[in-house]
Amino acid sequence: MYVFFPISHARHRIKYVNVTAHPTAAWKHRPRYLIRDRDRISGRGFLARAQRLGIETVLTPVRAPQANAVAERWIGTIQRECLDHIIPLSARHLRRIVQEFVEYHTQTRPHRTLDLQPPAGPRPRQGHGRVVVIPILSGLHHRYERAAA
Predict the structure, then answer these.
(1) How many domains does the chain have?
(2) Mean pLDDT by groups of 10 residues along the chain of 149 residues
(3) What are the phi and psi torsion angles at 36 (to 5°)?
(4) What is the rounded CA–CA span in Å between residue 45 and residue 51?
C-alpha cells in the first residue's frame, strides 16, 4: 500500500492524505511543489502531468533522506505512534486509520518544533469543569477536554 500526503513544511500540517495499492499520476493531489525522492513510482508520465498542471517538482539528492526531513519525520511518527500498533486489514481500513491519525496529529498532538502546539495552532482555553477523555484510534491516543460546566 502507498500513502500520499502533501505536507506544509512551515507548520508540519498534512494537507491531504490518500491510500492506494496502485499509485497513478491522477491519484496524487495537486500541490504547488512536489519534493520527491528518486522512487520509480513518480515516473515520466507523472512528471509530465505534474508539469502540465503547473506543479514544480524538486528532486532530492541521491541517498539523502535529510533532504526531505519533514516528510521523513512524519513517516517515522505515524509508523511508531500508529502503524506499529494497528494492523490494517484493507486499503479502506488503512485509509481510515491514517485519516484519523492525521486529524490527531494536526489538531491535538504537540510538536516540539512548534513550541508544543499542534500544527493547526493552539486550542482555545476552556473554562472550568471536569476533564473528559476522548479516545483516538480506539484508545491508542487520547485528547483531553473540559466538559461544559
Answers:
(1) 1
(2) 77 78 67 73 74 79 76 90 94 93 88 82 81 93 84
(3) -135, 155
(4) 10
